[in-house]
Specification:
The protein has 69 residues and is mainly α. It is 88% helix and 0% strand. The chain has one domain.
Length: 69
């Protein structure tokens, strides 16, 4: 029961955290009046860590399922 709960809740909570961090970046850009280019740069630079985590999960899943290179 606990393992099933953890299997389902972990990706949901991490996804929620990523969405919340995107909101924080957007709010930071809005409050600092960064403009269009500044907002894009904030998302690229600050979002790179989130993208790295997502890529890690995808690559791990591919290797464990036998679809890796």
């Amino acid at each position: 029961m606990q393992q099933t709960f953890e299997t389902w809740i972990t990706p949901i909570m991490i996804g929620g955290l990523i969405l919340f961090m995107c909101f924080i970046i957007w709010d930071l850009a809005k409050k600092s009046q960064a403009g269009r280019f500044g907002t894009i740069m904030l998302f690229v630079v600050l979002g790179a860590g989130m993208l790295g985590y997502v890529l890690k999960v995808v690559i791990t899943w591919m290797l464990e399922s036998g679809n890796g290179v």
